[in-house]
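Hi C.,

You asked whether I'd gotten around to modeling the 587-residue construct. I have! Everything is below, sequence then structure, no commentary in between.
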Amino acid sequence: MNSYPRSSLLRKACLALTSGFALLSGPFSVAWAQSTPVPSEPESASVENSKLNAEWMLLILLGEMQVSQGNPGAGYSMIFEAARKSGDETVYKRSVEVALAARSGPSALESAKAWKKAHPKSHEANSYVLQIQIALNQITDSVTTLRSSITLLPPEQQVEGIVGIPQIYSQVQDKELANVVVEQALTPFTTQENTSAVAWATIGRMRIWAKKLPQAVEAAKLALAKSPDSPEPAMLALELLSLGESQAEELVLQALKKSGQPNLQLSYARVLIDTQRLNDALVQLQKLSQDMPQFSDVWLLLGAVQVEQAQDVQAKASLLRFLELEKDKQEVRGLSQAYLMLSQLAIKAKNNAEAESWLSKIEDPEQLTQVQVQRANLLASKGDMAKARALIAQLPTNTPQAKRARLQAEVKLLRDFKKFDDAYQVLTKASKDEPDDLDLRYEVAMMAEKLGRLDEMEKLLRSIIAAKPDFQHAYNALGFSLADRNLRLPEARELIVKALEFSPEDPFIVDSLGWVEFRMGNKLAALAILERAYANRPDVEIAAHLGEVHWSLGQQDKARKIWRDAMRLDQTNELLQQTLKRLKVKL
């Protein structure tokens, strides 16, 4: 069981690319107000005299005076009266603004509706009505208003308007009702050639909010069928894949074949990384790097995956390629991540001078914590753990996030250098300070296991399961621990299967299932399960288990090959070394 991620830099590399393209959380969201562009001012604008007469101007003036004197109600009445008498859109808009500033939603809606009635083709008036209806939770009433808002846009702006709909309804509490309303409003647009694909994509996104994922997949299928080249359906399918809808992957692959969008392919690789499918991500990134060698973002993410896969030579080449492509740009976040990973590779190669030289290049203030952590690793690698921990102790703790980051940095440092007792003491104190933090309690349990305190580990994990029944890692850790000690195997299997219900594609949980099947004597079942886990994540510990199953089946050549590959990834891995020693295997 691999209880900890091998590196946080892969995740940070993914985040470093976020500014380059949007993914999943409203990737194409546009503020509704931006749907109507501001017309450019002519070079010699002619002066147009106001069409307001003296009576209306006086009403407006008196109304503004009331507003400035702290009587917005009276001021609103006067300005609204001037709007109704004059029919002037600017005055209507001002009356709405006054009502909104006074937090009088009903008055604002009254004025906006009157404005819309006086100017039925005004998209701005209709938009105000829509936004106020939603703010007042009159969601059902917004169906016709929403449909009108799209209809009133010029045809060339309707796609953008439809894309922005989820943002408009984002604050609605009743997501199911919002989904119904949007579907009703968009029905006419699902059959129009220029809007059908984006309409179905938007319906799909609303269905996701309403937790109707299978129906959202159907919407994605319809959207892609209408327009295979459109980015919105592809990104919807990608979002669904990230949420565990495996059917959506075929839609993503279809879109990639049709569109050839590099950002879509890079986003797909990120989802594969998030779901622990590093081999599949590597395939996508390598293909993209060949097809678009000047696309710098792909080299950063490729290098991060290669670092995670212990492909050190290839990782360094990818990261240096990224730096070459980015040398004249000002995006420091990606550069900082590249420098950090190159420093990590140098530390691993025991080249401390090179590691420090990469760290010295980092200028991004947001990365100072990581720089400090990496320098602490340098000190620890020289045997000066006291100074290393002192360096970590200097990290800020002015926010809860910063405090947790410092704790994680110290624990990782101690764990990486096998100071398990010290790490246990640090975690135990932190957990006592925050007894309701289940993540901290889990970390204490994992460190207790490292120290052989198995009864304490089991007690802690069971308390986590009681407090949070969907904490899959607690089920997996407890099940694996029992299986590894050859104890209560049916119960161990039950715990691991429960963990898989929450995370069916997690290769480490799949590995645990394979191991418990092996312990129960089901070698062929164990082999199939472990091969699946290893294909998704060629981790050293999964390799140790898979090799042992092959060895027990008399397939020594296959076992040796897997173990040799694992040795290339990490020859110091404790489980791998113990396995080889126990089986008396020489590679």
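If it helps when you're writing up: Confidence is low (pLDDT under 50) at residues 18-50.

Thanks,
B.
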